[in-house]
Amino acid sequence: MIEAFDNDWFDAGQLYKRWLSGHAPWFPSLPRDDTPAWYRDLPIGVRWYAWMEHRSFDRWYPHFVAYDGFVPLVKEIQQQGVRVIPYMNYRLWDTKWRTEKEREEFERIGRPSAVKDRRGHIFTEKYNSLFVVMCPAAAGYQQKMRGELERVAGYGVDGLYLDQVSAGRALPCFDPGHGHALGGGDNWLEHGFWKYLARFREELKRSHPDLIFEVEDMAEPYAHLADGFLANRSFVIDPGARRLPLFPSIYAGRVQFTGRNVSYEDPQEAYFHKLGEMLVQGEQIGPTTLLVTLGDEKRKAFLKALAHTRHALLPYFNAGEMARPLELEGVPTVSADWGYYGPRILDSPAVLNGVWKRGDSLAVVFVNVTAEAVATDVPLAAAVREIRAEAPALYRCEGASDQSAAEPLDARAQPPLRLEPYGVAVWMIDERSLDAEARGRVEAMARTLREVRAHGACLRAAASAAPAATNSMSSG
Predict the structure, then answer these.
(1) Share above pLDDT 90 across residues of the chain, in percent, rounded to a whole number
(2) Are 282 and 254 spatial neighbours (Cβ–Cβ below 8 Å)?
(3) CA-CA distance, 463 to 49, in Å (whole number)?
(4) Among 58, 151, 274, 319, which one has the highest count of C-beta atoms within 10 angstroms of its own C-beta?
């Protein structure tokens, strides 16, 4: 499809989304009704890597057997209100085996199911061990994985994280025994994951209706097979490039984005940049380890503020759509080392923002990711045009009180905004005269932000007592 237009990345994404909604079999509905509500509203969860009997990572795939004591521990964690999602790899078979039975199974299932080149040689990839890449169209391997998925779901977990499904490169396969065109590429989707994983998902959800599926990174042909994308590297860019939320502007609400890599190796300010961007783009916040957050008062308070704000915004994130982000003038630019396989200095505006539309209501969320207060005027004309309000009004939910009075808006409105260090605010744009449902939504948001601001007092006290922040700021 080719269509001419005259604007920017956001409009290009909206044109593409319009095409997807009528033509793409992988484009999920909005809201995503086949994703359990608990996952769309997830307060806290654990993605568990070293849960297998050997307690190691990237070893002995595809044999996924839990260590003794795993199941009781899962139940204990769940009783605390925490969801458990163990790691599995759906693409690789280890060339090292622990028993003769594992060697025999590889020769009987693994080798015949492997991706083959023109000469019949198998493809391998090196991680912690040397692995053979499996062809997704190979029925023998898929039936092996069907049994593994059933076993792990039977441990009583809440979901399955299937590594490499949407991240691992698709390889042409020339094995005539797999039933696909030789080297034609249809082995990966049409005769592979679209055929088998779609069926396995449907079958497992019959016996485990609240089970969810996550996959690594973001690749749209897998959106209907997964409830969540581990965004992680998908938002990692080269220094100097501009980060654009193009993918969330199309797929937000249709699939969950489960955050970025937040490491204990990250410099202090990168933590706030990453988490702030997750919030304004509607992502689930994380993943991170407890060690990254619990030892730092600023981080704890910031994470808590974002978690509560995200919970209040769930109707917009899960059933609404991302609108065009605002262009804030005069806001400083902040640089921080985002890490990920070495230093990676990236720039962010000191105040991040996201605009979310649900019906004829807008929620605009702001996050100050720095240790300094920031003030700016906010151009709302473009945002107001997103809704069909006869008498549009602004409702500021900034934490000052449990109430938010209506402020009339016109086409030239540029209300002032001031955010404390690491502050969060939500502005709601709706009719000047609200019905009961809309009024309740505004009041709930105002109460949440008042609580967030109260916790923010602790954050600002910790920030003022901390050493000078290690970020670089310039006017932009």
Answers:
(1) 65
(2) no
(3) 34
(4) 274
Who contacts 24 (Cβ-Cβ below 8 Å, separation ≥6)?
Answer: 220
- Whether residue 161 is predicted with pLDDT greater than 70 in this model: the reply is yes
Q: How far is 379 from 209, CA to CA, in rounded Å?
A: 45
Give dist(CA 292, CA 279) in Å, integer. 18
H or E element, residue 92: strand 92-94
The answer to whether 313 touches 287, Cβ cutoff 8 Å, is no
Residues 6+ apart with CB under 8 A from 378: 326, 328, 364, 414, 415, 416, 417, 427
The 10 Å Cβ neighbour count of residue 254 is 21
Minimal CA–CA distance to 272: which of 474, 471, 473? 471
- What pTM, to 2 d.p., does this model score? 0.91
Mean pLDDT of the residues in the chain: 89
Provide CB contacts within 8 A for 52, sequence distance 6+. 60, 63, 64, 65, 66, 67
Q: Quote the crossing angle between the two packed helices 297-312 and 436-465, to the nearest 10°.
A: 170
3-class DSSP state for residue 460?
Answer: helix
* Residue type at position 77: I
Phi, psi angles (nearest 5°) of residue 14:
-70, -35
Min mean pLDDT across 3-17, 245-259, 349-363, 394-408 is at 394-408
Q: What is the bridge-based pairing of β-strands 424-431 and 361-368?
A: antiparallel
What's the count of helices (H) and strands (E) in the chain, helices before strands? Answer: 14, 20
Fill in the amino acid letter for 28.
P
Give me the sign of the Cα torsion angle 131, 136, 137, 140. Answer: positive
Residue 281, token pair as written in the block: 């783009």
CB proximity list for 87: less than 8 A, separation 6 or greater: 47, 48, 49, 51, 57, 161, 163
- Largest Cα separation within the chain, whole Å, is 76
Q: Measured between alpha carbons, how far is residue 315 from residues 37, 83, 194, 268 in Å?
A: 12, 21, 30, 31
Please state, in angstroms and rounded to a whole number, the distance separating the CA atoms of residues 101 and 149.
Answer: 20
Neighbours of 413 (CB within 10 A): 18
C-beta separation of 57 from 88 below 8 A: no
296 CB burial (10 A radius; 0-12, 13-18, 19+): middle
Strands 333-337 and 472-474: antiparallel
Give the residue carrying structure tokens 């309000």: 389
- pLDDT for the residue 432: 83
Confidence of residue 384 (pLDDT cuts 50, 70, 90): confident
